[in-house]
């Protein structure tokens, strides 16, 4: 029996004993997660079971189970995120249960993503979320701490200091794998790294060629990119254009860091991010 099978068996027993899940549900392991183990539990109700395994330091993305549960709870019924069912602390790790979102991974509608981000940024954020840096110098400093290569350091843009933005709820990991299109519209899943910060964070995340390559194997198209930007509020789009070099340079540094950790695909993804960065300079 594999380690994953052992964990699944133990976790099932724990949750059934607590009366948290259907004892007869069929557990289907889900692919695509970068940090945690996730199953689709098919039974009387369709449920997602998420076990947090890797909560070690990541230079860009947190993996906070309590923050994810708080966001799902705050956004419940808003047509934005999955509906939470329960949160459990176990000897195997923290476990989040939420309603399964049936649908397909997002593919092409940039305007729909812009609309979803607008609705998220209009929501009050739950208490206790981390705060992100909002000016260009601090964003670039985060990239510096990932020890970028000399070649990438040569591409480091000048810092831009803009007026402070309104601080809003941000997801921070708006990538194709976390956007699910179902019968009720677009939903954003995997809320383990939310924050309070500049709405541009989610704009830059969605427009990252590296993240599109990782999750779809291809870059975002010009048509989708333009439809997304055109559907953003004018002020948010202008702020993105001003800060895009800093955000994409930081993402290129992150991709180099991931490649150094042995994560597949990130060397190629980082090159795509550098290509975009070069076109912006």
Automatic annotation (TrEMBL):
One family name in Pfam for this protein: APH
Aminoglycoside phosphotransferase domain segment(s): 31-232
Full protein name: Aminoglycoside phosphotransferase domain-containing protein
